[in-house]
Amino acid sequence: MSAFPARLVSLSSLLAALVLYAGPASAETVTLNCPGTMAVNYSPGMTNTPRFMTISGTGVFGPCVGLPLGIISADYSGVAQGTTSCLTSSTTANLTLKWNDGTVSTLSLTQTLNTRPTGQVVSVYAGTVTAGRFQGAIATATLTLAQTDLLGCFTEEGVTATAGPAVFTIVSLL
To answer: Which residues form the signal peptide (predicted)?
Structure first.
């Protein structure tokens, strides 16, 4: 057997082995829109004076619409940090979505838009899925969180909690 056919057979065997043993692909097409509700706590409380704070939140999202079809809901938990007040906010968030099929996505988001009429929180966050299912996908979150203590912004303790509707969108087209 000459050297050329032997090399061709070796190369073919190597390619076949790579195809057979490469393992699952890490990326998948995703176009999900998941409405839901969330509740957040502010520490220290949110006042009219901007200050650094930690914001922790939880929520439930679904029914999700889009692809993949088996994803219909998610539980949310996360933490945001940054300078915040009843009038303005600049935060980054790290959060986890645990999907109904048991898989998990970790997201890193930055606040891109916010308005705070009378202490209500209306914000848009954008970023990416940094780990887990849908890694590399683009992620956005839109929040409209109401607080019932309208004078809380004027107190020393401040507003310590808000809650309301939110929507997560995750997109990655292969």
So the answer is: 1-27
User: What's the structural domain count of the chain?
Assistant: 1
Q: CATH number of the domain that 41 lies in?
A: 2.40.160
Determine which helix (DSSP H) or strand (DSSP E) holds 65, and give its type and residue range.
strand 65-67
Tokens of 15: 């390619």
DSSP type of residue 152? G
Residues 98-150 pLDDT 10s: 999 999 999 999 999 888 776 678 899 999 999 999 999 999 999 998 878 87
Q: CA–CA separation, 146 vs 140, rounded Å?
A: 20
135 φ, ψ (degrees, to nearest 5):
-50, 135
Kindly state whether residue 14 falls inside one of the protein's structural domains. Answer: no
β-bridge mates for residue 54, sequence order? 43, 81
